[in-house]
């Protein structure tokens, strides 16, 4: 057995991981339910896979990133690794279940990457992904793809990011086609594609340098690529590309452009075409995409120099705390700036077939980066509200007691009142002391931001009554000292008051500054 | 990079793990929310810790079971292991957060044990635990302990297990005291205790044999232990023990008995004393318990010979499929029978102090074994309902189209109708084919047990109308063919019909046999 040495522990979580608790955990749970509700609205089935897979399942799926996979130790038996994403386990599940030939599935779970962490920007070694994917062999082109993008907009609308996000889209076949047209040798297409993908962080000059100096591309070919990849737009860009005879003569590019035309039409029907930016520099790193690709960016995603959004500034401050920032310094090359995309995905028609040649099921899907969404949402809440008073739990009622000389503490009575509240579905707590002091009980209620106190006194109890007090009422409010309520009607009374409070019917014109904020309500207001 | 060989994969999940999907995943999610709601009602704060911990954090906490811990491979950097339970990470978190001195926290997450799996009984290598713990230094005795047991009853009541479970309780101090009183040598107390703990599976004769033959205990001492550990009861047992002068003269036993008296009093106030069985054979394996201990058993927990409950029989059948069972065979010694306890816990006052001598925070908590609860609930549902029709997702409406010669498929109209349903919060789906066939659309709706179809036809649409049809209505029902509804009032109409259906106002006296069952409703009815 290992030694029990009392002081030999390093009290920390492993590098790149963290504990989630209190208001942060509550806010993140709210984000999870918002996303899950959208997924369910679109008919998603929940899938839960093991946190580790046989190592051979993951092998050969992630290109260079395979070195970031966490392996389990060989303790005799199977060789396993922690999952790197949720897409490969989904493809493995599809290959294992040949009776499932079309499915919409969602999966919210942690994934693992042995990467250099940057915690303040939501870049961690253990982090959550929320995935929605549609698999099906006999669908007509771009219909499911359009629904996935509709889902993306619903998630961000439901999160309250109205107008604060853009979905960049592109198509692997257009990219492959334009590289061919420009004269990129076949064996350089992938590496040139990944250079192009850096255009959201680097200038064209830097990217060109990488192509020509590092990757040996002909300068004229690079210049020809430039005429395409710096372009972004909507239907206008598509129409202009469709008149480009060199491009449309290429079969791959033509197929991609036709898909894109269909997509824009369907997104019109879904009413979300204004959220889309057709961005020819978007390439995405993963090997397995075969068609449409997309990435959602928001104010905090881009390098801070490209935006004056407060999010970006806040995030930037927190990650560069002790560094003097030169406003003229070009930091677009600074990897410490920007949280990156908040959601991304695309079509991957060949991945399932890698597991089982008989199971060629085309798929399209999206993955939401909840930790990044959390960072941005929290920064926004901190600007807009008093973040110090955020709650850790959602208790409605604190049951307390007071009395003069000979005060017994009324423990059993507090327990009985709590019991009746719990059994009526009301969230309640009480002090675990036999004779708690009144100020300590009030402090506990205030610290947790609990909206109501039920106060037990011996005289009132003898008359079958207790006092119900709404916490944080301003001086002079007629109910500042609470109201007496019959014990028999207590749960009904509390339920009515909670409903009234939730609907905001009784909200004071201006909340007094010392009133603890109600996170659940704030989140509702903000999201 | 690993080879991409197409046929070299073993398509399976690692040993002792499984995928969760479809109706099983939905039922398990329902169980999770039931449990989480109880935890929140009692003021629980959500805590989420990393799936792996520094190995030294786990070392020396689990006694002999430490060999079951999964280790991560040393890939350079820190040495980590997968968590074995949620209690040690909670204690580590408490020790790391010295400002938190009293807290109620809950945690639903997977834990990992390299044990011999027995999947059909919910014994797996990766499985969920749902934990609620109360930590606090200055609480009065047994108040928090009582609330934890109250929580246990609320969880099983809310799961619909009315009267089908028993909470066995005992106290480590009583056990330690009685072993002293009976003359067990100090160095044998732990091993004798673990022998006693097997009395739920073995006969006294077998346990005595283990004590005397294997563990070298004096036979007379064993016999003296027997006079205590075979006893179970309630207040009667407590009162009889309190008159046992030998026992009450032992300081440890006396302290335990006093706690137990207080506990029974408080549980009376919480109205749950009838769910408790004071069982002197309960010892619990883990090292870290220091006071009250408990374990929840149900019909499937015990060896099947001890009960004729259909659960136990069903579970037994599934685990012994191919074995002829001899009805006279004593299988109480057969470890393949019974799912074991469905929840367990106790008081552990010294665990946090093992991480930080300054942080001596007493704790008490409980852990629910969701996979076992799932197995039992599912077996019950399969007996009580048509399990074949259980749903995989919760879609409310399938939007379909039909038409005669020259039918265009009405794809864009189906998309627009879906859009308006989604934006009204209604769960809806449609076919991804441009020109889907009507029978295929009906089949998709039926297979998924979707309650309503919205049917688009060109003529009706021209008149601004669509047909709303409730699925599975019996022949002769006035609305069997659906009703025409204005497109403008479609979402309102659907919402009203969904509410009506949920409230059961329109339920036919006898559901037609071919109507797909609604799991959500079934779960609600059963839980």
Automatic annotation (TrEMBL), chains A, B:
The EC number(s) this enzyme carries: 6.1.1.21
Listed Pfam families: HGTP_anticodon (PF03129), tRNA-synt_His (PF13393)
Function summary: Catalyzes the aminoacylation of histidyl-tRNA in both the cytoplasm and the mitochondrion.
Keyword ATP-binding applies: yes
Xref: InterPro entries: aa-tRNA-synth_II, aa-tRNA-synth_II/BPL/LPL, Anticodon-bd, Anticodon-bd_dom_sf, His-tRNA-ligase, HisRS-like_core, HisRS/HisZ, HisRS_anticodon
Gene Ontology annotations for the cellular component aspect, listed alphabetically: cytosol; mitochondrion
Superkingdom of source: Eukaryota
All copies of domain Aminoacyl-transfer RNA synthetases class-II family profile, residue ranges: 27-527
Main location: cytoplasm
Compositionally biased residues, Low complexity: 305-314
GO molecular function terms listed in the Swiss-Prot or TrEMBL record: ATP binding; histidine-tRNA ligase activity; RNA binding
Basic and acidic residues bias: start-end ranges: 323-333
Protein name per UniProt: Histidine--tRNA ligase, mitochondrial
Catalyses which reaction(s): tRNA(His) + L-histidine + ATP = L-histidyl-tRNA(His) + AMP + diphosphate + H(+)
GO biological process: histidyl-tRNA aminoacylation; mitochondrial translation
PANTHER family: HISTIDINE--TRNA LIGASE, HISTIDYL-TRNA SYNTHETASE
Annotated region (Disordered), positions in chain: 305-341, 497-527
Entry binding sites for L-histidine: 85-87, 113, 129, 133, 284, 288-289
Entry's localization field: Cytoplasm
Similarity annotation: Belongs to the class-II aminoacyl-tRNA synthetase family.
Keywords: Aminoacyl-tRNA synthetase, ATP-binding, Cytoplasm, Ligase, Nucleotide-binding, Protein biosynthesis
């Amino acid at each position: 057995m290992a030694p029990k040495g009392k002081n030999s522990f390093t009290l920390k979580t492993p590098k790149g991981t963290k504990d989630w608790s209190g208001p942060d955990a509550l806010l993140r749970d709210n984000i999870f339910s918002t996303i899950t509700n959208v997924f369910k609205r679109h008919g998603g089935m929940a899938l839960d896979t093991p946190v580790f897979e046989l190592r051979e399942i993951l092998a050969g799926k992630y290109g260079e990133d395979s070195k970031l996979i966490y392996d389990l130790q060989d303790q005799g038996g199977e060789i396993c690794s922690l999952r790197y994403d949720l897409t490969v386990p989904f493809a493995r599940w599809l290959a294992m279940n040949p009776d499932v030939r079309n499915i919409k599935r969602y999966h919210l779970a942690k994934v693992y990457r042995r990467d250099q962490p940057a915690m303040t920007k939501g870049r961690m070694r253990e982090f959550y992904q929320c995935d929605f994917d549609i698999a099906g062999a006999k669908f007509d082109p771009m219909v499911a793809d359009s629904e996935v993008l509709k889902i993306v907009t619903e998630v961000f609308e439901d999160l309250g990011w109205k107008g604060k996000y853009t979905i960049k889209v592109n198509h692997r076949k257009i990219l492959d086609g334009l590289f061919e047209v420009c004269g990129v040798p076949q064996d350089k297409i992938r590496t040139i594609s990944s250079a192009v993908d850096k255009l959201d962080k680097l200038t064209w000059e830097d990217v060109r340098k990488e192509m020509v100096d590092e990757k040996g591309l002909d300068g004229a070919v690079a210049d020809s690529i430039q005429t395409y990849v710096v372009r972004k737009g909507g239907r206008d860009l598509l129409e202009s590309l469709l008149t480009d005879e060199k491009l449309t003569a290429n079969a791959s590019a033509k197929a991609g452009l036709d898909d894109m035309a269909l997509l824009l039409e369907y997104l019109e029907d879904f009413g979300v075409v204004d959220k889309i930016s057709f961005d020819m520099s978007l390439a995405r790193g993963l090997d397995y995409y075969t068609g449409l690709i997309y990435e959602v960016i928001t104010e905090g995603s881009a390098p801070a120099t490209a935006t004056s959004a407060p999010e970006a500034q806040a995030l930037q401050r927190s990650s560069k705390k002790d560094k003097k920032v030169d406003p003229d310094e070009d930091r677009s090359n600074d990897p410490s700036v920007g949280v990156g995309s908040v959601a991304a995905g695309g079509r991957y028609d060949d991945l399932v077939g890698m597991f089982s040649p008989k199971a060629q099921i085309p798929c399209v899907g999206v993955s939401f980066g909840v930790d990044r969404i959390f960072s941005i949402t929290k920064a926004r809440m901190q600007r807009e509200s008093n973040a110090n008073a955020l709650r850790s739990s959602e208790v409605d009622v604190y049951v307390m007691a007071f009395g003069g000389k000979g005060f017994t503490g009324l423990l059993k009575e507090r327990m009985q009142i709590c019991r009746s509240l719990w059994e009526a579905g009301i969230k309640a707590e009480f002090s675990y002391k036999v004779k708690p002091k009144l100020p300590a009980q009030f402090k506990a209620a205030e610290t947790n931001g609990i909206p109501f106190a039920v106060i037990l006194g011996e005289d009132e109890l003898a008359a079958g009554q207790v006092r119900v007090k709404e916490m944080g009422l301003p001086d002079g409010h007629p109910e500042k000292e609470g109201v007496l309520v019959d014990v028999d009607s207590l749960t009904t009374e509390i339920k009515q008051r909670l409903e009234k409070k939730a609907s905001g019917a009784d909200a004071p014109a201006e909340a007094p500054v010392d009133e603890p904020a109600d996170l659940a309500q704030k989140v509702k207001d903000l999201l």
